Each structure stands twice: as structure tokens, then as C-alpha cells.
Amino acid sequence: MTTTFGTTLLKLKTGVANHFDPELFGGSGGAGGCGGSGGCSGGSDGSGGSGCFKRSHIKIYTITKLFIIEQLREPTALLWTTLSPCALFYFMASSKHAQLAPPDYTSSASWFYAYIACSSALFGLSYYLIGRRESGFIRSFIYNESALRLFLTSHILSNSCISAIHFSIFYLITKPMAGAYSITEYTFLLTGFYISYLGFASIGLIFTILPIKFSTAGTLFSIFSFAMLVLGFISASATESSTPLSRYNPLALIAALLSGDIPLLTAAVAVAASFLFSLYLAKRYFRIQPVWSRY
């Protein structure tokens, strides 16, 4: 996966990155951004401020679209994040020699949705941010606070869309094993899934401000994911006396959330607070220069 992503970054820097006109991030040297010299200045009628606000939204939309296209061109993420869990889900369901009953689908699939949320947030969001920094992409295009805000906003939005696509593909493929599609069930699961995604994104954003290289980040994310999977497997196959082992396992908490054991509103408030705090730290301490750089 690391090699494939390195190739993707190279393509981004030499191919897709050609579409990233510096003006998208506020102009050369940051002079053209909102609030910069030569940027938007609010007039007495507020037209300048509203024009700057509109242009910022257009830039966010444009950059987000480019990021989505770039990720959709990489089939490896779809394979490991979505199709592999689908295959495992089918294998586990068929090994029971019985079709899942409709009420059991949510509890049976909740661990898979938790894994997809984890992979989308850690490898899709945070891993990409670290990779773009280490490739020199951020140093080449990000010049000031306004540019960083546009970049982070666009990246989070694009990865949110990609994670929703992964979720939808898994639901469309696996749900027929447990009955007919349900828009109510889909909406509930999607809401819980996105809350879970933001929870993992909160953890991933903290990793982006650490002085770690691209390969180190991949190793840490892999260890983190593997540890959660092992704890989840142990707790699922052990007696009730062993449940404290996984009490604070994020995958177990998300599985409980998607199964309805944790109220969505309570989880949404807690996760929103942690995500905003992590986003604040990431924006404040975000590293522009690669770790290997001498600057």
C-alpha cells in the first residue's frame, strides 16, 4: 500500500498537481488570499467581504473536486477499504450455514463499518496529509493561514465524500444477505458511520502534527489498527469477564454505537467536540516543511 501511495503522490505532484494553480490557495506567496495583500477588503457596503466569501467557497469546491477525482483514480483504497471487508463478511456469513436474519444485520455488520471508518480516517485522511507534506506538495502550494484553511477544509470534505462512498458500497453489497434495503436503516447507519469517521479523524489529525515520516506514519497506523482488531477478536471470543480488555477499544465503541447501544446524539456531541479540538491543534501546529527537510 505504501508503494502504491507513493506512486499516487508522484502522479499528484507531476500530473494532477498541475491543476492546482497557486491562485486556488491564495496566489503566489499568499498575496492573493483573503486577508492578504491584494486580497479581499471589505467595503462600506460589505461587497468586498461577501465577494471574498464567495470566492473562498468556489475555491473549496474546486479543490475538493480535484481531491475526490485523485482518490477515485486509486483503486487500491477501494479494494482494501471496501471490497475486502465485503468478501470477509460474505465468508463469515456463509460459514454459519444460514442467512442472517434482518434484525441481525446491524450487529453483524457494525464491526465492518467500524473498520471502514477507521481505514477511511487514518489512511484516507491523515496518511494522505502526511504523504503530501513529505512529498513537498504542501510546501509548494501552501503559503499562509488562509491557504492552509482552504487546504484542510477541502481535504476533509473530499475524504468525507470518499468515506461515504465506501460505506454505501459495503451496504449495497452486503445488505441483500439480510433482507431488503431500508432507507431508514441506511440513514441511521450512515449517521453513526460518519460520527465514527470523525472520531477516528480526531485521532488521525493528532498524528499529522507529529514529526514523523511517511513510512513511520504507515507503520503506526497499521499497528494501531491491528491492535484494535486483535482486542476486538479477543473480546468477541472470550467470556464476559474479559470484556474490560476492550472497554476502551474504539472499534468496540463504534460497534456499540452502530448497534444502537450508544445514543447517536450523545456520541455526536462528544465526537464533534474532540474533532474540533483536534482540527484546531492540526491547523495551529501543522507542519509545512517535510520532516526530512533541513528548513
UniProtKB/TrEMBL annotation:
Keyword Isomerase assigned: no
The entry's keywords: Membrane, Transmembrane, Transmembrane helix
Transmembrane domains' residue ranges: 75-92, 112-130, 150-173, 193-212, 219-239, 251-282
Protein name, as recorded: ABC-2 type transporter domain-containing protein
